[in-house]
Amino acid sequence: MSTPPSPHPGYQQTPGAYPQQPGPYAQQAPGPYAQAPGPYQQPAPGAYQQAPAPYPPQQAPGGYGQPQAPYQQAPVDHSRPAPYQQAPAGPGCEVCGAGPATRVTIRGHQGMLIVMRNLWRKGTFCQSCALAVFRKMQSDTLAKGWWGPMSMVITPITLLINLFALSKIRKLTAPTAALGPGLDPGLPVFRRPAGMFGLLPLSGFGVVFLFVLVVLATA
User: Fold this and answer.
1) Is the dihedral of CA 165, 167, 170, 176 positive or negative?
2) pTM
3) Deepest of 85, 165, 175, 203, by most Cβ within 10 A of its Cβ?
4) What is the DSSP letter of 189?
């Protein structure tokens, strides 16, 4: 290509003896080992975008608001009696803690030919527990109290004394407000095996007693 004409034709610039060298800060040509990008450079936008929330945030109710009751309270019927009645005033049963209770003494007797043994149980009992003790002692005395010379006299007296204790037990009302399991009254005296067996010696004693009365009356 041809050199363009000088803008000042009268003063033509001649090439000097020392041609102009490039400056010390001239742009350096890229070398064979180009600088790799830094390991901590900012990643390209959009590579790890934040995923949207799966559930939209819901505004919680006030921190001190009154929570809604899950179960509504049933209306109270004051006409019906309370399921747990208050224990009546006075001592409670020493077995189950129920009331009303009274102090009774129930006796028993065992005759064993040569020797004999007197039994008793004292305590404060409700109607159910006292009746259970009475039926047990009375039926055992009917079956085991006759077998001795003196026992044939002591046994009917013991049975008669227990009848007075039974009348005291019958005056008690049904127990309420028990604190624990009580004694089971079970079957009546003469419906138990021991009571049925005791009817034989009791009947024999009755016959002998009537015979003695007749003899004394006709003597």
Assistant:
1) negative
2) 0.57
3) 175
4) G
